[in-house]
Amino acid sequence: MTQRVIVAVTGPRRGAFGPRFLVGCALRWYGAHALQVRPGDDLSQLHYDAVVVTGGHDIDPVIYAAEPEVHPKYDAERDALELAVIDDALARNLPLLGICRGAQLLNARRGGNLFQELKSHRKMTSNRWTILPLKTLNIEPSSRLWRLLMSDNCRINSLHNQAIDKVGEGLIVSGRDLDGIVQAVEDPRKPFLLGVQWHPEFLLFYRRQRLLFQALIQAVRRAAD
To answer: What is the superkingdom listed in this entry's lineage (predicted)?
Structure first.
């Protein structure tokens, strides 16, 4: 009997019920168990086979050695927890999917930085937040994301006001929006290391979006074979 895959799903100490629930639904769809991990949890006491770092507040720019240009609400204890989880996943080669701030935090941990505001960088796309798939993602040919989705483009949503600027060490850009803003990064040297700027958990009615979670789980099972 195949052992059930356990996926750590990170988030804030309180709130974010909707995204956590939907990520859990996607993981259960493909036979995995979602282990909700919050600030204050003792990571040394937890067992997990893969990681999903979910979206939420902007990350503190001190993480990528920058002065604040805007003043959103930061969550220092969540930053610390998720950095520790990312470090653990990287050290153990665990499959990892970063969603929105999760992609940004992964990029910062690899030495990259962020645009702290996007309005001035947008010409072709709206700066409006929406869970609806109203933006176009252009996917880099031959990337892991392209091989996974088997398409040059697809529709995505947008719930972010920051995005990746300088790409972190070992990461490559695998998707951009119509303004050229980075929407996906990956590390082709890792079994599965992908960061997406949009929120696939709000688009589970699209099979392509569910494939991101399926691929994460499949990477765990391949490593166990």
So the answer is: Bacteria
CATH code, domain carrying 31: 3.40.50.880
The pair of structure tokens assigned to 209 is: 């979006």
Q: Check 82, 154, 186, 201 and give the catalytic one.
A: 201
Q: Of these residues, 82, 154, 186, 199, which one is catalytic?
A: 199
What would the pLDDT profile of 183-224 be if each residue is shown by its tens digit?
Answer: 999 999 999 999 999 999 999 999 999 999 999 999 999 988
Active site residue 201: yes
Amino acid found at 107: N
Among 105, 119, 129, 141, residue whose Cα is nearest residue 198? 129
- Token readout for 160 is 């972010």
| Active-site option among 100, 154, 160, 186 | 100
Contact 219, 52 (CB under 8 A): no
- How many domains are there within the chain? 1
Report if pTM > 0.85. Answer: yes
